[in-house]
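ESCALATION

Customer reports they have been waiting on this structure for their group meeting. Please prioritize. Original submission:
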Amino acid sequence: MFCQHMLFTKLMSTNNVQQSTLSIPLLPGHPMSATPNTTPPAKRKARGRPKLATPAEQRAKIVEATRQLFLTQGYGSTTMSEVAAHCRASKRTLYELFPSKTDLLGAVIEQHRTTMLALPGDYAGLDLSQALEQIFQVDISEEEDKAREAFLNLTIVEAARYPEVGEMMIRLGGDKAHALLADWMEEKKQAGQMFIDDTASAARMLMDMMFGAIVTKKGAHVEWPGLDARKDYMRRCIRIFVHGTGVRPVPET
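Update from on-call: job pushed to the front of the queue and completed.
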């Protein structure tokens, strides 16, 4: 009985010590005094990789850089290494998109062609005169006008030294522009909006009117008239092409 009493007393004493220990407030700074942090740690914002340019964007950047180099130092003096450095592209990327400098030249000529003739394009809802003014880009800015004049001068000079320049200007420039204009006219003819018997001939005539007469060659350069005079001339060409001279046809007898 005495042993049981001693055991009971010991257990109670131990329990009291534990309770008193748990009830004693801990001093600030004590490891056990800190309130548990139940807030999940903030997620660090992941750094994404910089957006890579698409092949089309890379191509456009390289073509524009090449055009600038050609205008500055000429086609013959420009190297592929200079093009890669100028547009900050690797030579591997450059050669994947353009295997040779001739391919680069072709791309620059095609870009130039769109500054002369904006085709293909959507000109729905415009009458013939309005559509042709936009196709031939009558209202381009003075800066744009000077840029295409400079490129024409470049090709005249370089074609005398490098036959491929002249050949590609004809094939990818003039001939391609003529084919696109003839196709557009054929669509208008089929829609009953133009009445011409031969769209290919009509397209050639209009291009000769718009470009041939206003580009005068003196030596190795071309000269355009003043910007306002050029715009007025081109509008007159379009008006005559679309509406004729106003002379009524003589009735057949």
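Sent to customer with the following note: The longest strand covers residues 216-218.
Escalation resolved.
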